[in-house]
Amino acid sequence: IEPDWNEFTKEELIEIAKRYYETNKDKSKSGKLSEAKTLNIPYSKSAKIFNVCRQSVAKSKTRVIKIKEHKNDAIIKKSFLDNKGRYGRLRLSAYIYIKYNIYIHPR
Q: According to the lineage, what is the superkingdom (predicted)?
């Protein structure tokens, strides 16, 4: 249940922020960054609360690792396993070209 923050006075909100700071100050940097990520306040303010660099908070909020899936991944994996892992990139691309008639750049 989300409390109605308009009911609190400014002094009470400051006290809540101090207690929040006290409970989180002994966490590791990664713990602080993950906690700062969940807050919905500007980067500079959350960095001051957790005593970490503003850019670290911004990166942890915005950086999302994308995994690219290529259309030939299944063929490449199957070919690699068919050859029991003996073929390198160059030879594997030649094998795929001969067997499936698909050109894959060896790099």
A: Bacteria
